[in-house]
Amino acid sequence: MVKSKKRMTEEHEFQIMKLVLDKFLWLGFIIMGWGMYQSLSQTSVLAGLWYMIAGAVVLLLFVIIIVKEYEVWK
Q1: CB atoms closer than 10 angstroms to residue 55
Q2: With contact defined as beta carbons under 8 Å apart, do 27 and 58 qualify?
Q3: Is 65 strand, coil or helix?
Q4: Are the beta carbons of 38 and 53 closer than 8 angstroms?
Q5: Could you tell me if 38 and 48 are in contact, meaning their C-beta atoms sit under 8 angstroms apart?
Q6: How crowded is the C-beta side of 69, counted as CA atoms within 13 Å?
Q7: In terms of C-beta density within 10 A (0-12 exposed, 13-18 middle, 19 or more buried), how is residue 31 classed?
Q8: pLDDT confidence of 61, banded at 50, 70, 90?
Q9: Quick check: 39 and 59 in contact, CB under 8 A?
Q10: 23 phi and psi angles, rounded to 5 deg
Q11: At what angle do helices 46-70 and 10-41 cross, to 10 degrees?
């Protein structure tokens, strides 16, 4: 006896996607915040600049995933 797999509705899929992408958002802002702290606490701004760039890359990845997955621009 083979059971058929349950399919998620678009609403459920969207809710799960929001939970996952929310973590990308937090991670990106935490990394950028750490970079800002490093820049302000040390004598060189360059010390935290790389963290801020890494946070921006994470947030850019977030945007690419949203556009690719949900085709926002259509």
Answers
A1: 20
A2: yes
A3: helix
A4: no
A5: yes
A6: 14
A7: buried
A8: confident
A9: no
A10: -70, -35
A11: 170
How confident is the model over 51-55, as a mean pLDDT?
92
Q: Under 8 Å CB-to-CB from 29, ≥6 apart: which residues?
A: 55, 59
Distance CA 37, CA 39 (A): 5
Model confidence pTM above 0.85: no
Question: What pLDDT, on a 0 to 100 scale, did the predictor assign at position 73?
Answer: 53
Tokens of 54: 């890494």
Between CA 39 and CA 33 the distance in angstroms is: 10
Residue 64 amino acid letter: I
Residue with tokens 């059971």: 3
